[in-house]
């Protein structure tokens, strides 16, 4: 079945350390791929998106993500985490190819220790 | 440029009642989608509207319905509320249907008691 998997429910990193959040999808073709961040009680903010072309995508707040077709992955990275990055991160894909319906992963909650 | 506006932010309803939530998209955006977020089921797609027409629908019962007006504003309605309908309802808008990249509102927190 078509799905999106974020294998890490909760991750804790120290401020200043690097971060990688994992996302895998199961789909026959290459879907549109997104990473969103959600702070408590808030909506979703788009960090970055991949449609085609360069597989390394730069986003806001110093985040980047790399699309790897062979691994069906779209992992989110940040070289140095700030305490304000503590939030929940969602990987989302458009599996329909119509860009009108997003399927979300279950999310990864990031905790940053000082 | 104003973002996606959802009203109200918080709502408490009694089981069996109905509720209407409102979403005003970013100016110029014509596609509006709705999502339900719960701790147990996560983020789930409800439906998408474009030019007043429903283009996609998720796997929700008929108690969940929506509509879009000529100014692209959208409403969703839930009838005969159940306790399990308690959730954060998020609206997202996009320039056009089929153009990737949605901007989300802050959501409406619905509590059913």
Terminal-residue CA separation of chain B: 37 Å
Q: Total helix count of chain B?
A: 0
Provide the β-strand percentage band of chain A. Answer: over 45%
Amino- and carboxy-terminal Cα gap of chain A: 41 Å
Q: Indicate the radius of gyration of chain B in whole angstroms.
A: 13 Å
Would you identify the regions of chain B where 5 or more consecutive residues have pLDDT less than 50? none
- Described by its quaternary structure, the protein is heterodimer
Tally the helices of chain A: what do you get?
0
- State the share of residues found in helices of chain A, binned by percent: under 10%
Q: What percentage of the residues of chain B does DSSP assign to strands (E)?
A: over 45%
What do the pLDDT scores of chain A average to? 92
What pair of chains forms the biggest interface? Answer: A-B, 25 and 29 residues
């Amino acid at each position: 079945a078509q799905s999106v998997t974020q294998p890490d429910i909760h991750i804790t990193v120290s401020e200043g350390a690097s971060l990688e959040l994992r996302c895998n999808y199961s789909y026959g073709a290459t879907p549109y791929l997104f990473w969103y961040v959600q702070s408590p009680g808030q909506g979703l903010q788009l960090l970055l998106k991949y449609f085609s072309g360069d597989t390394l995508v730069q986003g806001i707040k110093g985040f980047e993500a790399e699309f790897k077709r062979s691994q069906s992955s779209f992992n989110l990275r940040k070289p140095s985490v700030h305490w304000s990055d503590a939030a929940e991160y969602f990987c989302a894909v458009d599996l329909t190819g119509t860009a009108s319906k997003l399927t979300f992963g279950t999310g990864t909650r990031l905790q940053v220790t000082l | 440029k104003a973002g996606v506006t959802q009203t109200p932010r918080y709502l408490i309803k009694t089981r069996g009642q109905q509720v209407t939530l409102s979403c005003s998209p970013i100016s110029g955006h014509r596609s509006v989608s709705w999502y339900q977020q719960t701790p147990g089921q996560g983020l789930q797609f409800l439906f998408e509207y474009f030019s007043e027409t429903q283009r996609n629908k998720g796997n929700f019962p008929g108690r969940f319905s929506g509509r879009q007006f000529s100014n692209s504003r959208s409403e969703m309605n839930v009838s005969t509320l159940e306790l399990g309908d308690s959730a954060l309802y998020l609206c997202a808008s996009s320039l056009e249907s089929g153009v990737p990249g949605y901007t989300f509102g802050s959501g409406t927190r619905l509590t059913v008691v």
